[in-house]
Amino acid sequence: MGLLGAMMDRVRTPAASCCLGAVLVLDFATLPDASTVGEFKNSLFESGRRRCCGIWPGDYFVTRTDDGFELSQEWSGSYDMIHTRYSRYESGFWSPTREHDNVGMKIYAASTPYSAEESEAIRILLADRVAAEWDREIGARIRDSEWSRSRMLPLGYLHNAAAMLVLSGFVCSFLWVGDLWRSETRRDRRRRGLCASCGYPMDGLPEPVCPECGERVGERFA
What we know:
- The chain is built from six helices and eight strands.
- It has about 220 residues and is α+β, with helices and mostly antiparallel strands.
- The chain has a domain of about 130 residues.
- The strands form two sheets. Strands 1, 4, 5, 6, 7 and 8 form a six-stranded antiparallel beta sheet that branches. The protein has a two-stranded antiparallel sheet with strand order 2-3.
- It is rod-shaped and about 115 Å long.
């Protein structure tokens, strides 16, 4: 209790409130962006510990044929666009504590919508095309349909623990407001001839001791 009391005495000052508040504001202002969403052409891909940036080769389009489906990177009136999306975002209180990656595919049909079986066939066709022409890893992700992954960010937990410690100190530092109010109240009562502790009138008493609370008039209190 002695060490804790000494720490509280150091924290409960106006200077400590200003310093700890400034630290919290600066920390909040420098936090990374909570989320980023984009397409393959401007996304960051990760494989294990290896990170690589790739450039999406372009939009793909699909059309129905007698043999099934045909993919092309050149659009014509009979083709529908395939939108392959990638989202990466972080979640957590204050500092991010978990990172999420999601990959998916959506077909924008200009006329007749595609059934679930047709969409599945197009997805596999697109996955093989991307794996052959661009990147095997991304092709494998598209083949896995709605691919998602999340991983923990240990530094985020450490950051949040430190932030909570600073926040606790910031809240406790405002105890000086109560100390100041009590000190001013005691001074005002003394000036008016009242007991500094309970406000009992002290004029005309034979002893300089408050009959209400027992405090001596001449004693000094913080």
